[in-house]
Write a structure and sequence with these properties.
The protein is 75% helix and 0% strand. The protein is an all-alpha fold and 264 residues long. The chain has one domain. Helix 3 packs across helix 7 (106-133). The longest helix has 28 residues, at 106-133. The chain is globular and about 60 Å long. 33% of the residues are buried.
Length: 264
């Protein structure tokens, strides 16, 4: 508990640096972009249109409002995918600064994950626009969306800490993770219903028990698409994955961070 309080105090002490790093990452991403921040809304919309055209004939039967179903899944998965990929390089990309002055090393990883939240917020705008066009039902349960965002943010932070530490010592982690996220996407019900896997019980069991993204996406869809509070198993399962992965990521990062300087 004392160690946790100390980390929180250090984070508060360096909050200005964290803010500047987040602002820098956001500005660099859209620098010299003609559409600027508007691209954060157009990008998920274009992806949704393409995926709807490709997958609608195969998977939209029995799915109410397939565009919203698709976007609720792709928005969350894209956040985890992009934020953790950026976090993986966070320590290496700031190696020059780490060699000159003392800065809490986790600040760089945390900044990458936090800056990606900006894109997630913009994708929410795209989602609401699609809901208006498709005449989807807006319910008061949507006010609970921040709960899902907090869950998936903590999960992404934990995974980001783990990847950033591992990538310092093993540079091929980036290639392994690229292959992993591709398989992860197909093992997540983003563009197909989970009921489609009823005849593949072992695959469905893996997805519904071992895939954290299933919990976050299902929770999100229950609030946005179905207008209801999610099941207790989905709700508490999401928190469990978040804190377990966050604990593992912080533990690995803390145990290895003193050796970073020898490998960067």
């Amino acid at each position: 508990m004392a160690a946790m309080i100390e980390r929180i105090n250090v984070l508060i002490q360096y909050k200005d640096l964290l803010r500047e790093l987040v602002v820098r990452d956001v500005k660099l991403k859209y620098r010299r972009s003609f559409l600027g921040y508007l691209w954060s809304i157009l990008s998920p919309l274009l992806i949704m249109i393409v995926m709807t055209i490709v997958f609608s004939q195969m998977f939209d039967r029995g799915i109410d409002n397939f565009p919203v179903y698709l976007l609720t899944g792709s928005a969350l998965f894209e956040f985890v995918n992009s934020s953790t990929h950026m976090a993986m390089y966070s320590v290496l990309d700031n190696s020059a600064l780490l060699k000159k002055i003392y800065v809490p090393k986790y600040i760089f990883t945390l900044a990458k994950i936090t800056s990606s939240v900006v894109d997630l917020v913009f994708s929410m705008g795209a989602l609401f626009l699609v809901m208006l066009v498709t005449r989807a039902h807006f319910s008061l349960y949507m006010l609970l969306i921040p709960v899902v965002v907090i869950q998936i943010y903590l999960f992404a932070c934990g995974l980001g800490f783990l990847l950033s530490a591992a990538n310092v010592f093993f540079r091929d982690v980036q290639y392994i993770y690229n292959a992993f996220t591709t398989a992860w996407m197909y093992l997540t019900p983003i563009f197909y219903p989970i009921e489609m896997l009823d005849k593949m019980e072992w695959v469905r069991w893996i997805i519904t028990h071992l895939n954290p993204m299933y919990y976050y996406i299902q929770h999100f869809r229950d609030l946005v698409l179905y207008g209801r509070f999610t099941d207790a198993a989905i709700f508490w399962g999401g928190w469990l994955f978040s804190f377990v992965v966050l604990f593992i990521g912080l533990f690995v990062f803390k145990k290895t961070q003193d050796k970073f300087i020898l490998y960067v």
